[in-house]
């Protein structure tokens, strides 16, 4: 599967309807983003069971702001609708493979339990 462009209108549905979604937050003027793009594209060809989305932070400024993107490229991973990884910086192929393997290997019952615990522990705003 090749990468797909993600917009404000498609983000929620994409995350909700797919088990694993990776998002590459990038911009045309960003050198590290351009260096990371072929690595990300190659991974998308290798892992057809994952949606590889790209968010153009220049075109989708409101979306980038709501996701609190302060540095690009930033890679995010969602599993079963839960954000399980977020890190700025271009990754080499081996590190991207490690992230993908880790996300695939997550025990989602444990993740959901931890999310629920954090929600209970959070002070009411």
TrEMBL record:
PROSITE patterns: THIOREDOXIN_2. InterPro entries: Thioredoxin, Thioredoxin-like_sf, Thioredoxin_domain. It comes from the Bacteria. The keyword Transit peptide does not apply. Keywords: Disulfide bond, Electron transport, Redox-active center, Transport. Residues 1-105 form the Thioredoxin domain. Belongs to the thioredoxin family. This is Thioredoxin. It comes from Kocuria aegyptia.
């Amino acid at each position: 599967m090749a990468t797909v462009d993600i917009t404000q209108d498609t983000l929620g549905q994409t995350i909700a309807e797919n088990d694993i979604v990776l998002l590459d937050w990038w911009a045309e003027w960003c050198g590290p983003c351009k260096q990371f793009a072929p690595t990300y594209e190659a991974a998308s060809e290798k892992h057809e069971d994952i949606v590889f989305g790209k968010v153009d932070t220049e075109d989708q400024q409101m979306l980038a702001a709501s996701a609190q993107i302060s540095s690009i490229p930033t890679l995010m991973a969602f599993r079963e609708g839960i954000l399980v990884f977020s890190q700025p910086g271009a990754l080499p192929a081996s590190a991207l493979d490690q992230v993908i393997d880790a996300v695939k290997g997550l025990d989602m019952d444990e993740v959901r339990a931890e999310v629920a615990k954090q929600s209970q522990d959070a002070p009411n705003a």
